[in-house]
Design a protein that fits this description.
By secondary structure, this protein is of the alpha+beta class. It folds into two domains: 99 residues, no CATH class; 149 residues, no CATH class. The chain is built from ten helices and nine strands. A hairpin with a 2-residue loop joins β6 and β7. α5 packs across α7 and α7 crosses α10. The longest helix is centred in the middle third of the chain and has 20 residues. The chain is globular.
Length: 258
C-alpha cells in the first residue's frame, strides 16, 4: 500500500490506528527523541529534560521503523526518516482539509490586555476550555465562568503568539531564551513575540508552579482533563479542581477577578 509516495510494507501498519501513526510522526517532527520500551509500552522522551514524555502501545515504534517511516538516530534516539516526513506532509494536508469541514467554530468576545473587547474564534471540538465554559454544572452555572475563560484564552493567545514550544512554558525561560542563538530561541523571535513570552512567564510565575502546569496543558496544549489525569497519574476528577484554582489565580493576575 502506498501513501504520500511512501511504500508502506504490506501488513506493517494495517492494524495501527492512523491517528496514532500521525501522533508519533508529529511528535518526532520536532526533532529526535529518546526511545524507551518497557512494560507500559513504547515511550518517547525529549532529548532535554524539558517537557513530558509520551507513551504509545507496545510495538508502535518497531512497526513504524519496519515501514521505514522512522530510523535510528544513535545514542538510543529515534527520528523521522525522509519517507516519514513525506508521509506526514501528505497526511497533514489531507487532515487539514477534513478538519476544515468538521470544525465547530464560534466567535466569542473577550477582553484584551487594554480592556477593549476582542473577537476570538474557538473550535468547540478542539478546545477543552471552551467545552467547559459552555457546559453547566449541577447548580446551573458554567463549569468555567466568563473571567476564567477570558483568562485562559488570553494565556493561550500569548502562548501561541510567543511561539512557545512544549517544555518551555513551565520553566523560567528568561535566562535560557535570552542566553544564546539556538533555533527557536530569543534571537529568532520578534520583539512582539518576546513580549508575549514575557507576559506568559509573568502570568505563570504569579499562578505558581503547583497550578501552572495544568493551565498550560489545558489552555495552551488543548489537553482534556482525562488526559491530564492519566499523564500525571491523578485521581479521577481532580484535574477539574486544580484547573479551576489555576484559572482563578490567572484571572486575578489579569485583573479579571478581585
Amino acid at each position: 500500500m502506498a501513501e504520500g509516495g511512501v511504500n508502506l510494507r504490506a501488513g506493517r501498519l494495517d492494524r495501527m490506528d492512523p491517528k496514532t501513526v500521525r501522533r508519533v510522526l508529529k511528535r518526532l517532527a520536532r526533532g529526535p527523541q529518546v526511545y524507551e520500551c518497557n512494560g507500559d509500552g513504547d515511550r518517547l522522551n525529549p532529548t532535554s529534560s524539558a517537557g513530558p514524555g509520551i507513551t504509545f502501545g507496545a510495538g508502535t515504534i518497531s512497526a513504524l521503523k519496519a515501514a521505514e517511516l522512522l530510523e535510528d538516530a544513535g545514542a538510543g534516539k529515534i527520528r523521522l526518516s525522509a519517507s516519514g516526513r513525506a508521509w506526514l506532509k501528505r497526511a497533514l494536508s489531507t487532515e487539514d482539509g477534513f478538519q476544515e469541514q468538521h470544525q465547530e467554530r464560534i466567535s466569542l468576545k473577550v477582553r484584551g490586555r487594554d480592556g477593549a473587547n476582542e473577537s476570538v474564534r474557538v473550535n468547540l471540538k478542539e478546545s477543552p476550555l471552551a467545552w467547559l465554559h459552555f457546559r453547566k454544572a449541577r447548580d446551573g452555572r458554567p463549569m468555567v465562568d466568563a473571567p476564567q475563560f477570558e483568562a485562559g484564552e488570553r494565556l493561550r493567545r500569548d502562548h501561541e503568539f510567543g511561539q512557545i514550544r512544549p517544555g518551555l512554558a513551565t520553566q523560567v525561560w528568561g535566562a535560557q531564551a535570552r542566553g544564546g542563538g539556538k533555533a527557536g530561541g530569543a534571537i529568532d523571535l520578534s520583539d512582539a513575540a518576546m513580549d508575549a513570552r514575557d507576559r506568559v512567564e509573568r502570568a505563570l510565575e504569579d499562578v505558581g508552579p503547583e497550578l501552572s502546569g495544568v493551565l498550560v496543558d489545558v489552555c495552551c496544549y488543548l489537553k482534556g482533563l482525562e488526559t491530564v489525569e492519566r499523564e500525571r497519574r491523578w485521581p479521577a476528577r481532580s484535574a477539574k479542581i486544580v484547573l479551576a484554582l489555576g484559572l482563578d489565580r490567572l484571572a486575578r493576575h489579569y485583573r479579571l477577578k478581585v
